[in-house]
Amino acid sequence: MSEPVLQARGLAKTFGHVVGLDRVDLTLSAGEVLAVIGDNGAGKSTLIKCLSGAMVPDAGTISVEGRQVSFRTTQDARAAGIETVYQTLAVAPALDIASNLFLAREQRRPGVLGTVFRMLDTGAMKKQAKQRIDDLGITTLQNINQAVETLSGGQRQAVAVARAAAFGSKVVILDEPTAALGVRETGQVLRLIRDLRDRGLGVILISHNMPNVFEVADKIHIQRLGRRLGVITPRSHTPAEAVAIMTGAATLDPAQDADDLVDTPRNT
Q1: What is the mean pLDDT of the chain?
Q2: pTM score > 0.90 for this model?
Q3: Per-residue pLDDT tens for 192-246?
Q4: Which of 51, 2, 76, 87 is nearest to 221 (CA)?
Q5: Among 186, 94, 209, 191, which Cα is nearest to 137's?
Q6: Neighbours of 4 (CB within 10 A)
Q7: Residue 193 falls in which region: left (phi positive, over 0), alpha (psi -120 to 50) or beta
Q8: 255-258 long-range CB contacts below 8 Å, 24 or more apart?
Q9: β-pairing, 227-232 with 219-224?
Q10: In CATH, what number is assigned to the domain containing residue 27?
Q11: Domain annotation covers residue 59
């Protein structure tokens, strides 16, 4: 069996007397969508910040494809092939789609124009941006010269996901990607998530939307009060059962933990 593309063991993080993470384990395979669910204060945000380099855990280990890593910054995580799309999206509204895809990764023109005069190779970036959007099958973004501030919420989310997919060679983390989106735009984002999985990337989806979670997730990691309660699948539990476990109204039988079971890939 191949090594997980991303694995965390015993992650702990405290903020004074407040426990953010209490010895949390997480396992993500390539070509898998792992949803992370939990009430407010469950530690979801702290967990993804530790996995994406935005926060340094107090204890525990993180491994990428079996190699232990130490992320001190988000750039460290990006260099390891992990991209994160936060709920705030972090797009530059005044810039066009192509410029947003290469934000903080701008390409310079070859030769002295790039090295001495530091001129950007806008033509190459636009061509690559169009190719990457086409490869992802994003049909809602037709004009890469269009300013992001003129796009709908779903289109802006598509830009952020496309940027993550373009540079996230191993893992893409999505924080509430369908929040505040309509039904049609939500469907487009869910299709993008499936496309990322089908391309062999590991996807971590943080969401409060149980129908969305059960539609696209292969496994569901449940957090409560900073602890990992266990991992279930859409085949082993219903959305109501997942919510009951998440809120403490029910407990998960350790024998049902999906991380301890041999599971077959999901076909959708």
Answers
A1: 90
A2: no
A3: 899 999 999 999 999 999 999 999 999 999 999 999 999 999 999 999 999 999 9
A4: 51
A5: 191
A6: 19
A7: alpha
A8: 256/230, 256/232, 257/230, 257/231, 257/232, 258/219, 258/220, 258/230, 258/231, 258/232, 258/233
A9: antiparallel
A10: 3.40.50.300
A11: yes
